[in-house]
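Duplicate of #3305? Posting structure anyway:
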């Protein structure tokens, strides 16, 4: 190999490098890529109407819609969360909590041989569907100072079902709303 050939090889390498980089730069200039400002396809949220049985701002609850999601059978299962403290059967005794036979439609704090908290006695309302729903959602929030040590039933289905079940355990069940 003589000096001339080595020069040719070096020149070829330099040329190749220049061409490769050059094309890269030139194509950057020529094909300046415009980034799209909007997504090529849009996902639009479907217009779903949610039938909510949660309290509206006025505090009223669509009790009919709420009870429609529950069943007495499911309520009997949910009531297992209450049996540590309550009996719901006719002729049942008070436990940690008062006997709940016929509780719907009854005035709150009405069992004479049960020692209620002052808060519950002061509450003094009839256990309507609405009242029961609010109490079971969050007992301590609805009746501040109640001694019922129970966090509440978050699921609408659970509340609806247990209310229906308790209403079935009664001499005078509340009429359907
Ligand atoms: C840890 C024990 C405990 C559990 C569990 C419990 N309760 Fe109670 N409950 C009480 C006590 C104690 C009271 C009395 C509250 C007071 O005087 O403030 C009470 C009161 C009540 C009252 C008012 C009764 C009346 O005569 O006015 C209702 C209704 C009630 N509970 C329903 C339920 C239901 C339904 C469940 C299950 C989902 C449940 N409780 C779970 C202890 C409990």
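Output from current build:
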């Amino acid at each position: 190999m003589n000096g001339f050939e080595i020069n040719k090889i070096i020149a070829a390498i330099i040329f190749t490098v220049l061409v490769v980089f050059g094309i890269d730069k030139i194509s950057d200039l020529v094909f300046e890529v415009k980034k799209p400002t909007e997504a090529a396809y849009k996902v639009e949220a479907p217009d779903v109407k949610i039938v909510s049985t949660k309290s509206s701002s006025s505090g009223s609850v669509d009790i009919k819609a709420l009870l429609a999601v529950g069943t007495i059978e499911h309520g009997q299962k949910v009531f297992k969360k209450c049996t540590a403290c309550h009996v719901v059967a006719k002729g049942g005794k008070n436990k940690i909590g008062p006997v709940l036979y016929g509780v719907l439609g009854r005035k709150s704090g009405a069992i004479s041989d049960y020692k209620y908290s002052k808060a519950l006695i002061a509450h003094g309302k009839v256990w309507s569907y609405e009242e029961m729903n609010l109490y079971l959602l969050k007992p301590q929030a609805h009746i501040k100072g109640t001694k019922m040590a129970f966090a509440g039933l978050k699921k609408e289905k659970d509340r609806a079902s247990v209310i229906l079940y308790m209403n079935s355990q009664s001499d005078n069940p509340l009429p359907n709303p």
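Confirmed duplicate; merging threads. The pocket of heme C is lined by residues 81-82, 84-86, 96-98, 100, 103, 108-111, 116-117, 119-120, 136, 146-150, 153, 162 (CB under 6 Å). The CA atoms of residues 106 and 144 lie 20 Å apart.
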